[in-house]
Amino acid sequence: MNITRIGLDLAKTVFQIHGVDEHENVVLRRQLRRRQMLVFFAKLPPCLIGMEACASSHYWARELMKHGHTVKLIAPQFVKPYVKSQKNDANDAEAICEAVSRASMRFVAIKTIEQQDIQAVHRVRSELVKQRTAKVNQIRGLLGEYGIEVAQRVDNLRKRLPEILEEGDNALTDRFRRLLNGLREDLVALDGRIDEMDKEILQIAGDNSAAQRLQHIPGIGPVTATALVAAIGDASLFKRGRDLAAWLGLTPRQHSSGGKERLLGISKRGDSYLRTLLIHGARAVLRCADKKEDPRSCWLKALSMRRNKNIAAVALANKNARIVWALLSKEVDYQPSLLVA
What we know:
Helices cover about 55% and strands about 10% of the residues. It has about 350 residues and is an alpha/beta fold.
């Protein structure tokens, strides 16, 4: 059995494989259990294996590469057009096998364990921030039912909660005070967990040379720098800076036909978490641009007056993404003088 290419449909316990030979003849259709995976591929001669980029795909890619196989990950939306007839595991594996053979196919970079560790820290921190926001909204909503209004933002609630609990003439019952004190303790615990994640990110940013270089870009701090390093990995996989910006969804969406080009708003493709961090960082730079006279600030001020601040923030995020590609792919430090030139 001379297998040259395999499409592997991943799952939790049941895996479907579809293999073809050098003449594109189907020579293998088989279902494997999880415990059989590494044993089967260890005995198989090295070949090209295609998988969808999904949960556990980076783990399996690293494990299969240890046995000499060439592994390529494909975004699920690029596999869908090759699915024939109805959807099932066998058809999905066949579609992956077909898609991985296309010369023009775009592949997903395989992440290292270090990249996944950094991403795990960011995922946990992001979820904790969401939980804290939900907790703050719950407390403000409950207090509103008792006629007590608290301004938005976490800092305002932290300041007001002790005063509300100590105040004796606000008509709060003992039962609700106990509930409110428990919610305050939950909020303090979430603040502590988020602080732990922030310290972890600061340590990662200090130890990683690539993240250190990115932090010199205005609008990119430790959180954004480490998130970019974990997500991008090898920036040389992108041909130019615009490709990275497009991957982050910061370039215009195109709807052209008949030779007439029509550009719409940004595409918002890719990782929304990274795009949000870059745009928020750009907003911070834009907020301070009025007090500066360097060429970058002058460009931002002129763009804000000509269009609006939201467009200027996205434009700066786009520019920062291209600078990130240059620093990571060429392994150079940020030089504002070259940017002006």
